Amino acid sequence: MADKDLLAMLDAIVFLYDLSDAHSFSHIVKTYEAHPEIHGYPVIVVGTKSDLQVVPQKTELTPEEYCKAHGMLGPFFVSSKEDEDFSGVHTQILLAALRPPAAQATRQGSLFTSPAFWTAAAAVGITGAFFWYRHRQSQQ
């Protein structure tokens, strides 16, 4: 995490932990506290394997309390085995990467130099072009 060039390219940080493993969230706590250089970046926390038996995490604060205390988004709960719509989590990640208010003091550059901005802009442009094309086809 000490590579400043790598950190300069980040738009957001996503931490995943296993809801069925009581020690999983403690790795997020240790990583976050050991690397103060990532503080100020938007952080999204996602608990995985929500289809399994959820166990209490062996940390001083619950994941919800820790996220709130450190200004993190989440935790969000997902399962790849259940037929879930992950759009809520994807939307939160995209919004955090596009508008990182806390990161502005940490990073150089602006929204328009963000790779996430241009990725989202391209997706919107392509989607708009597709619907325009379909509309034009239906008019003929």
If you had to describe this structure to a student in words, what would you say it looks like?
This protein has 2 domains: 105 residues, P-loop containing nucleotide triphosphate hydrolases (Rossmann fold, 3-Layer(aba) Sandwich); 32 residues. It is 44% helix and 12% strand. It has 5 helices and 3 strands. It is flat, with a radius of gyration of 18 Å. About 6% of the residues have low confidence.
Oligomeric state of shown chains:
single chain
Question: What's the CATH topology name of the largest domain?
Answer: Rossmann fold
> What's the shape?
flat
Query: What fraction strand?
Result: 5-15%
Alpha plus pi helix count: 5
Characterize the biggest β-sheet: 3 strands, parallel
Q: CATH superfamily assignment of the largest domain?
A: P-loop containing nucleotide triphosphate hydrolases
Helical content band = 40-55%
Low-confidence stretches: 102-109
* Strand order, sheet with most strands: 1-2-3
Number of domain units: 2
N-end to C-end Cα span:
56 Å
- What is the level 1 CATH name of the largest domain? Alpha Beta
CATH architecture of the largest domain: 3-Layer(aba) Sandwich
Order of helices and strands: HEHEHEHH
| Strands, count | 3
Which radius of gyration do the C-alpha atoms yield?
A: 18 Å
Mean pLDDT: 78
Structural class: alpha/beta
